Amino acid sequence: MVRKIRNILLLLIVLCFIASEALAIPAFARKYTMSCKVCHAPFPRLKPYGDEFAGNGFVIKDKETPRYYADTGDGLLSLLREIPIAIRFDGFLRFNNAGSKKLDFSSPFVIKLLSGGEIARNISYYFYFFFTERGEVAGLEDAFIMLNNLFKTDLDVYIGQFQVSDPLFKREVRLTYEDYQIYRVRVGNARANLTYDRGIMLTYGFPGGPDLTFEVVNGLGLLPADGVGSFDTDKYKNFMLRLSQDLGKSLRTGAFGYLGKEKQGPAVDSMWMLGGDLTFSLPVLELNLQYVERRDDNPFFVPNPTRIATRGGFAELIYLPKGDDSRWYLTGLFNWVDSDQPDIRYTSAGLHYGYLIRRNMRATVEGTYVFRSDRPKHFRLGLGLITAY
Length: 389
Prior knowledge:
Structural class: mainly beta
Order of helices and strands: HHHEEEEEHEEEEEEEEEEE
Low-confidence stretches: 4-25
Oligomer: single chain
């Protein structure tokens, strides 16, 4: 088995070298004629400059983009000369000894179309569409309009679909196949968690800190509209407030609170979450820690409610031997979820190795051992090819 996996990995790497010269660079790099390395190391992981770029509406401060808008002679018309488009392709070869215990060609696992940029001064957009995710058309996930630097202050407003956890750690730019499990937890029949939702998000950075984020969301995820065209099925809205602060150049800490209600039939679930996070970053090493405590008073929406307590978090360690110039990297990820509801308990530990074949193409090997879940203990091993162009 080990020999077969090694041979397949070598074949993937050879194929990547053959194909990589035909790839273009992603939309934002094309727009500014710069390397993906400016914002990512390795992609899709964001560097601080990449976070700043995204927070500025996908615009580099004080840098004009030549011929970005079409000259129509109408000063009130902002018409993009070209629509910025990028594509991401993820494919895996996986082995899971809790499943069929056979090799599985999971490719394409993800194909998504991304687009974003400034459509007028201080007004930007971003979205991506899943042509396929796990073999199904998933549709839109991130999709929002961003109003940047409102009232000539550091106030930004996002309206649309986004991940509630984006101000904490961004799931979509993680390096591992294994997810941040505590963000995905849904308790009982309640639909609120820390992944995708529809609403509005406001961010404000005070001079010298702290940074403040406030979200108002439906609390139902990305459910389709009902028969009368409404996405929200009850009268309630959920709220999240987060504060974060840099402590020197290497340490960042934050805390958040989430409060919400959901009604199904005559019953109502009142829930809250509290959490803290920390990032310790050096040029060659980054440590990310997250902890979340959650309470639901009636998540099964029954006449005689049972209160469910849930807690968990993750620890992620990223090693880049040459910092931003690293061609290879290592990532370790530990997940932990505990709950009064047995089927959502989860504990895992994994190690991920990645090699940059090109700035926008990487080959990966990842192994994860699941100590506790709704299935017996098991081990997952996967080889991956991830590219964006």
